[in-house]
Amino acid sequence: MSSTSTLPTASPLADRYGPGALDDRPVDLAPLTEAIDGILRHRTVRSYLPDPLDDAVLPTLVAAAQSAPTSSNMQFWSVVAVTDPDRKDRLAALAGGQDHVRQAPLLLVWVADLARARAIGAAHGTPLAGTDHLDSTVVAFVDAALAAQNAVVAAESLGLGTVYIGALRHHPEEVAAELGLPPGTVAVVGLVVGHPDPAGGERVKPRLPQGAVLHRETYDLDAQAPHVDAYEDVIAPFYRDEGLSESWRRRVVDRLAVPGTQRGHAHLHSALAARGLCRPADRLTSAPTHRRTAP
Ligand SMILES: Cc1cc2nc3c(=O)[nH]c(=O)nc-3n(C[C@H](O)[C@H](O)[C@H](O)COP(=O)(O)O)c2cc1C
Fold first, then answer.
1. How many CB atoms lie within 10 A of CB 112?
2. In terms of residue numbers, what domain contains 52?
3. What are the counts of helices (DSSP H) followed by strands (DSSP E) for the chain?
4. What confidence tens digit (pLDDT) does each residue in 225-241 have?
5. Which member of 28, 43, 50, 111 has the lowest number of beta carbons within 10 Å of its beta carbon?
6. C-alpha 84 – ligand 1 centre gap (Å)
7. Which SUPFAM superfamilies does the record match to this protein (predicted)?
8. Longest dimension (CA), the chain
9. How much distance in Å is there from the Cα of 191 to the middle of ligand 1?
């Protein structure tokens, strides 16, 4: 792909699905509003200028994040804004040495937060057993992710760049200690925010054809295969340009063949329990149900 593809094209859809991908499988778009156009042009940015952010950026991103839907309006998330270079440096190290965490002026750490609800329960004299259940943790992760993504959309609309830092989950306890997170909270994902370095040249990364992800009425796994095949042709030159020779399927296999051990995720379940999320009580209360239904 040529370097000119970093420039906005007439159709953001062409970049989203890659060269030629729409020739056989056109996608009809509703009117291309500013919001849709911005979303379709998303690309992760991994090179930043050291320029500071305007003071209004952080509260704007938080307002955007708080505008995301949240399950039952429970608002089971918080965000820690980190600008201190030493703290960013330590968090970059915990995230496997990702340099963009150091480069960019702001790291937002999105937190699944059951602590606030538990504090409300304690003040009310009512321990909130419901927060021990796995579902509350799932809700907190979903809430945090929706909030974070709203911040991404807002940041990009301001001409800023972002990159998520899932690698913070390699060290949940150390990240919690660094951020002073109380029990009942855990960092879900980091988000670097800054001014993109134009020399970075990040491009829109094509996605799977819609036929691989869109099912009408019922799910059809077999029907996806030709679409996944077609994606290989689109993404292979993209990866080659980035110096990555693997196919997308190869990358899926390589990443997931071993259950997380090499990435430090193996202990995530126990780390969550240690942080007071998905507590063992959840497993105890669900056990009798399984026994009753056993033959
Ligand atoms: C939950 C999550 C965690 C991620 N963690 C990292 C990360 O630790 N480091 C990184 O460079 N990119 C990270 N990314 C960015 C993805 O690699 C990127 O979104 C993906 O390759 C697609 O590229 P695009 O965002 O440019 O379309 C993460 C993205 C998500 C959604």
1. 28
2. 44-197+264-283
3. 14, 4
4. 999 999 999 999 989 98
5. 28
6. 23
7. FMN-dependent nitroreductase-like
8. 65
9. 10
Q: pLDDT by residue (tens digit) across 178-196?
A: 999 999 999 999 999 999 9
Atom 9 of ligand 1, residue of closest alpha carbon? 165
pLDDT tens by residue, 117-154: 999 999 999 999 999 999 999 999 999 999 999 999 99
What is the domain count for the chain?
Answer: 1
CATH code of the domain covering residue 155: 3.40.109.10
* Residue 183 located in a structural domain: yes
Residue 63 lies in a domain: yes
Give Cβ neighbours of residue 86 (< 8 Å, ≥ 6 apart). none
> How many Å apart are CA 166 and CA 150, to the nearest integer?
17
Which atom, in ligand 1's list, is nearest to the CA of 46? 11
Phi, psi dihedral angles at 159 (to 5 degrees): 85, 10
Domain membership flag for residue 179: yes
Which residue of 1, 16, 17, 44 sits with most ligand 1 atoms within 8 Å of its CB, as the best mutation to test the pocket?
A: 44
Nearest CA to ligand 1 atom 20: 44
Q: Which residue has the tokens 């959840």?
A: 282
Burial of 75 (0-12, 13-18, 19+ CB in 10 A): middle
